[in-house]
Every structure is written in C-alpha cells, then in structure tokens.
Amino acid sequence: MADNVNNADAGTAMQAYTLVDDGWNSPIDDDGAGRQIQGTLLRFDDKQWFAGKEKAAIPNGSRYIALGIKTGWKRWENGKVVDFVREIDGHYPKRHELGYTDESKWECGPDDKPTDPLQNSREVLLIDPHTCTAYTFCTASAGGRSAVDDLKNAVRIARRLRPGVVPLVSLEWRVMPTDYGMKSKPYFKIVDWSIPGAEVIAIAHDSGGVNDPIR
Predict the structure, then answer these.
(1) What 3-state DSSP class applies to 54?
(2) Is pLDDT above 60 for 43?
C-alpha cells in the first residue's frame, strides 16, 4: 500500500515538474540578443555555399530544415541595417513608396559612388536537423531573391494541403542567364516535408514556401 502511495506521489510530482518553466524560453540577456540574424550567416557565391565570417565551405547537397523566411526592404545606415520594411497596407512595397530617393544624401559605397540605402532583400532561417544549429541565408541579389521566392511559393502551395508543414531542403545551385553570360544562382531543392513537433517526416517530394505578401 505504501508503495502505491509513493508511486502516486511520484506521478503527481512529475506532473507538477513538467509544468514548471524550465527556462529555455525565457528572454535572452546578452549583447547578441539584438542581432539581425539567427545563428551563423550563410552566403552563396559562384556555385558554392559558405558559412560565417571565415567563409567555411558548405558542401553542395547539405540538407537543412527551412524554418522560416523574411522578405522585405532593408535600409542601411553607417554599415548597419536600421529598418526592415516587410509590407505597406498589406502589399509588398515598391521602391518609390519607401522614400530616401534623394541621391545627394546617399552614402557612398565601396566604389565611392552614392549607393541606394534600401535593398530588396530575402532571408531564410535554416536549421541543421541533426544538431539544431541555426543558419540565416541573406541575399539581395536577383538570383538569391528568385531562389527564396520559389521556395516561398512552394511552401504556400504545400500548406493548402498540410497546414504548418516546413520543407527539408538540399543546398544546391542552378544556371541563370544574365547580361554577362551564364551565371550560377542558389537553389533550395525540396527533398521532403515535415510538421514541426511531429516524429515523422511526411508527404511529397520536390516542391516548397511561407505567408507574407508576394513580391
């Protein structure tokens, strides 16, 4: 009888413990809490993916969960992003709606010429499915924006069938015609789908996207 009481008490204690805030979701108090990106910066250049300031090569074909994206206009000032406009009155902004059109007030870029402080930008938050390491892919190039927009549109379509799914993507590249000949652009190849919190990776292959105004 005593054993039964102890077991019941232990069960009650365990239930109570699981309801206690374990601290993982509490606010972060450190100098990096206000960083623009999450995790390590990810870039693409000439058929190759790179991570971090050291530009460590990421093998083509590496797989990550695309957890979320951001599309919008970044405004730069003194080498830092000071604003990120994602929509105006429910639609994706046009450049002329954002102001800062007086070129005489623009800061000079590396070529010593005035540079538009606003960049049409994209970001993708990627998570290593094995280590949960976070990476953020940032781009303002035409090829990069196209890659992220394709991913976004695919996810929007997939979520009509399975709300909340996220894609498992393979980091690859595709050929892109330009005025200067054939160049490479990043490509997020969708290889599978999963629902956050579910134990099993589910549904179709080869499609993928998310939910703010389409450019």
Answers:
(1) coil
(2) yes
Structure tokens at 185: 């652009």
Element (H, E) at 102: none
96-103, Cβ contacts within 8 angstroms, sequence gap of 24 or more: 98/73, 100/75
Write out the two tokens for 28: 């972060």
Contacts with 81 (C-beta within 8 Å, 6 or more apart), sequence order: 36, 74, 75
Query: How many Cβ atoms are within 10 Å of 68's Cβ, its own excluded?
Result: 16
Q: What is the pLDDT of residues 157-205, one digit of tens each?
A: 999 999 999 999 999 999 998 888 899 999 999 999 998 776 544 433 3
Tokens of 17: 């413990």
pTM: predicted TM-score of the whole model, two decimal places:
0.75
Strands (E), the chain: 40-45, 48-51, 56-58, 63-77, 80-85, 118-127, 134-139, 166-178, 181-194
What pLDDT, on the 0 to 100 scale, is given for residue 190? 97
CB 131 within 8 A of CB 152: no
